[in-house]
Amino acid sequence: MGNWIASINDKNAVLVDLDWNKTYPIYMLIADNTKAELVKQAVNNFIKNNQADNLSLFPLYRYWNSKTQEAYLTNTYESKQGWYFDKVIGYTTNRTYGNEYSAGQGVFGSFIRYIHIKTNRYYYASDIRSKDPRLTNPTQYKRDSRLYSIRYYDKPLDMRNYVALHRFWNKSKNTFYVTDNINDARMNSSWQYEEVIGYVLYQ
Length: 203
Prior knowledge:
Blueprint: H1 2-6, H2 33-49, E1 58-65, E2 70-74, E3 84-92, E4 110-116, E5 122-126, E6 141-148, E7 162-170, E8 175-179, E9 191-201
Antiparallel strand pairs: 1-2, 1-3, 4-5, 4-6, 7-8, 7-9
């Protein structure tokens, strides 16, 4: 057996077709029922944990209000008075992943859209930023809706084309949002960088 294995190389190795009607799971070849059950559970767990995680992706539209000089993000193409469609700045998922944030993994499950109670200005923050000073006062902002983000730890797997979504703030109390791969002429010295609020896919 050892000599046969040693003789295998890229010139004589070939793929073969399998007749699934004549194949058996490895645990069916184990005589000991207890051991067979343990192997069966291990096989089923391996299959379950390695299944592809298919995500539905949605465009993240950025709108711009030239009068108030602020940005608005949404997953739906909308017609809002005073706002014009700017561009698709990335793609997000259709669901969140619960409270998965940890300092070691750096997970962003989603980001939340808020509306200022008095000015109706929009503000977006990560769902893990519970100590955001602008959100600690409930009389200033009210929660509007959730937008989903790409999980940070997906990058080594199938989410390699993701970029960070950054929030900027200016003295007029407006916000603007850009990603790593987008340069925008509107970004000048009047805007102050704040933080990453999530991650999006780009094409």
